[in-house]
Amino acid sequence: MPAPASAKAANRHDMSVILVTGSYDHEIRFWEAWSGICSRTIARTGEVGQVNRLAISPDKRLLAAAIHKKVHVYETGSPSSDPLVTFDGHTMNITSVAFHSEGKWLVTGSEDGNIKIWDLRSSTLHRTYDNSAPVNDVCIHPNQSELISCDQSGSIKQWDLSDNICSHELTPAGDVPIRSVSLASDGSCLVAGNNKGQCYVWKVNDEHSGLPRFQAVTRFLAHNKYLTRCLLSPDARYLATCSADTTIKIWSISSNYDFKQEKVLIGHQRWVWDCAFSADSAYLVTASSDHTARLWEMSSGETVRQYNGHHKAAVCCALHDGAS
């Protein structure tokens, strides 16, 4: 992200940094990252269900918002509150959404136990995988040909998009629900966090290496309360964990996958639900039940901006400040 003093930060039409939050108040808000001004609001008045998850397309052109059972896809540069396309097919809350690296499709996971792939070029449902348990999170492998999901039954599954099968399954803590999964940007490391605040780490080996695909390397207690999100930084040097204990913890990662608590980010007054790193891993955005979002500077662990405007819990956020 640009330096706080940058004159560009004051330009409302500068789309180099896209920061978005979603809330139980049914509103999606776009923010000027450094001024803290809300530059655009999409109000889903009268619509059933809150905004659950947000994702920005790699080219910054689209915002996907998981709202109850539907996904609305908006143009980030348009002032319109009407979605470009709506994907409707899940029968329960959608809990996760992620874009393909070239923006060709997006994937969703839902409490209805299904994972769906939606074709953005034809605006149709492309494929459905039956996970057989409520899905809590889904991420796309950097190779774009595999998905990693986690669910309420305590399972982590790898889905092979070429063979259309679940090729691997992990159950690190029996039936304890896994809340969140995160893959390193090079696909070498997988981290998962569960309802009891425990984090599990696997080294991900190449399919042709002759080694197990997932090799358990460590586990640690990240929080003493409910863990809501775990997220590896783009440079894979840090892990951020969010929790019901109102804190965000930053863990440094050594070359041998040793996780050391480096900072505790304190400032939110209630549950912290979601987080997003800047492209250079120097900043972190968080969303909380205290109705606010915060921008944190990783080096100091301090809040550099607070975003006020939501009237209920802010439960999701998305940040894209990389090259489009």
TrEMBL record:
Q: Which InterPro entries match?
A: MLST8, WD40/YVTN_repeat-like_dom_sf, WD40_PAC1, WD40_repeat_CS, WD40_repeat_dom_sf, WD40_rpt
Pfam annotation, one family: WD40
Q: Gene Ontology terms, cellular component aspect?
A: cytoplasm; TORC1 complex; TORC2 complex
- List keywords of the entry alphabetically: Cytoplasm, Repeat, WD repeat
Q: Could you list the residue ranges forming a coiled coil in this record?
A: none
The places in or outside the cell where this protein is found are: Cytoplasm
Its chief place of residence is: cytoplasm
Q: Which domain of life is it from?
A: Eukaryota
Q: Give me any GO biological process, just one.
A: positive regulation of phosphatidylinositol 3-kinase/protein kinase B signal transduction
* WD repeat ranges per the UniProt record: 87-128, 220-261, 265-306
Q: Which Gene3D superfamilies match?
A: YVTN repeat-like/Quinoprotein amine dehydrogenase (2.130.10.10)
Protein family = Belongs to the WD repeat LST8 family.
**What protein name is recorded for this chain?**
Protein LST8 homolog
Which source organism does the UniProt entry give? Laccaria amethystina LaAM-08-1
